[in-house]
Structures are given as C-alpha cells and as structure tokens.
Design brief:
Nucleotide Exchange Factor Grpe, Chain A, domain 2; three-stranded antiparallel beta sheet; three-stranded mixed beta sheet; disordered C terminus
Length: about 280
C-alpha cells in the first residue's frame, strides 16, 4: 500500500529532462559561439552560459527533489499513522487496563463481601455450637440427675426390700423354732421344709441367712450378743436368737446369739438343729 502511494506520488521526469537538454544545448551553443568568436566575450554571455547550465541542473534536480519531498511526506504520514495507531493501541490498552482495574476492584469488593459473609457464618456456627454444647451439657446434667434420683430410688427400694425380707425371715425362723419345740415331728418337718423353700428363694436374690451352732466360740466379727447377755472372753454360743444375713457376700447383720458357759452349751447341744443355710 505504501509503495503504491509512493509510485503514484512520483513526478514524471521526461519534461524536466527535455527542458534540461534544451537549456544545456542552449548553453553549449553559446559556449561554442564564444569559442568560435561568433559572439563577443562579456559578462552577459558568460552569465548566460553559467545561468543556462545552472538552470539545466536545477531543472534536472527538480523532479528528484519533488520525489524526495513526496517520499518524506509519505514516510511522515506513515509515521503519523503508526504513531496514531500506537496511540490508539495505548488508548485501547488503557481502556483494557481501566476495565481490568474496575473488574479487579469489583472482584476485591466481592471477596470482601464473601469474607464478611464467611466470618458471619463462622460466628453463627460458633454461636450455634456453643448453644448446642450448652444444651447438651444441660441435657447430660438432667440425665445424670434423673439417673441419680432413679438409682437412689432403686437403692432405697432394694434396701427396703431386703429389710422386709429379713423381717419376714426373722418371723419364719421364730415359727420354725416354735415348731421344733412343739414336740410334733410332722409339724416340725413341714415348717422345716417351708423354711428351706423360703431360704432357697431369697438365696436366688443374693440374700443368705446364717445360724450359729450351739457350743461354738463367740466371734465378735460374726456374732452379736442378744439383749440381756454380755459378751465375755471365752464365751460360748448357747443358741441362735436371730439369724445373721449377707447380701451378695456383704454382711448386713451379724448373728444374734444367746451366750452362756460351756456347760450350758453342752447341755443345749442335744436339741434338734435347724437346717443349715
């Protein structure tokens, strides 16, 4: 495109060449005439020759000068066009940069909003977790309190049940002893069987009854002197007043026994013995 514009801007040179040849021919003819003597020498003739040669040179150089001016103008226009294009590119780049800056600013604002939203969500989550922890702790405390109350109820109920069973077994033992002293073997046997059944039933619950044999030595860790009897060193068990009890291997009450001297205990041995538990 630039070369076509340069070719179209160039000046035709043949008219200038023709004029240059004419001027140089005229100057040559005048110089030849001076040399032949046809024209007199003088300032005018010399100036005519020099002026003709100078005019021919100027005429010959004129198209080239115009071509150079056109090329310079074209190159200047091209430079201006390139400069204008570069300016436009710079403006476009500046527009892109400004748009990118606005996008970056928008993205930064979006990130700030997202960060604020995430912090708010994190704060809400922490608050919910703290609230759930408090609710869980209160629930656990309530459950512990409820379980403690229920365990206390069960323990008291178990203790009351054991107390009632021991009371019933005491009466059962009293009836059994009365049957042994009644002098009726059949009645004594039936009461013995009944007492054995009762002892077997409570043994399944972990409750066991214990009796002391007449004549055995008094042991403070197992025996307790009945009312009206005083435990003395070397005392001997004369008989069982009330059975002792253990629940799951733990002592509840020692065997309440009647104490007496060894001779009284020996006399008491022939009495019928109760079934051993």
């Amino acid at each position: 495109m630039a070369d076509e514009r340069l070719e179209s801007a160039r000046v035709a040179k043949w008219p200038f060449l023709l004029g240059d040849i004419s001027l140089l021919g005229a100057a040559g003819w005048v110089a030849w005439a001076l040399h032949q003597g046809s024209l007199p020498w003088g300032t005018a003739t010399v100036a005519l020759v020099v002026g003709g040669v100078a005019a021919g040179a100027w005429v010959l150089a004129t198209p080239f000068l115009r071509d150079q001016e056109a090329a310079a103008s074209l190159y200047e226009q091209r430079g201006l066009a390139d400069t204008l294009q570069q300016v436009r590119q710079i403006e476009a780049a500046a527009t892109v940069i400004a748009s990118g800056s606005s996008h970056i600013q928008s993205a930064h604002q979006a990130l700030e909003r997202a960060r604020a939203a995430s912090e708010e969500v994190a704060a809400r989550f922490a608050e919910e977790r703290r609230s759930l922890s408090e609710i869980h702790a209160r629930t656990l405390d309530q459950e512990r309190q409820t379980m403690r109350v229920e365990l206390d109820k069960l323990r008291r109920g178990e203790e009351e049940t054991i107390r009632v069973l021991c009371h019933l077994l005491d009466h059962n033992y009293a009836v059994f002893q009365a049957g042994q002293r009644s002098g009726q073997p059949a009645l004594a046997q039936q009461l013995g069987q009944y007492r054995a059944a009762c002892l077997d039933a409570v043994r399944r619950l972990g409750l066991a009854a214990h009796e002391a044999r007449p004549g055995e030595a008094f042991d403070p860790s197992r025996h307790e002197a009945a009312e009206g009897h005083q435990a003395e060193p070397g005392g001997v068990v004369q008989g069982t007043v009330a059975c002792g009890y253990t629940f799951r291997g733990v002592g509840i009450r020692p065997i309440i026994v009647a104490l007496g001297p060894a001779e009284a205990a020996a006399e008491a041995r022939p009495e019928p013995e109760a079934p051993a538990s």
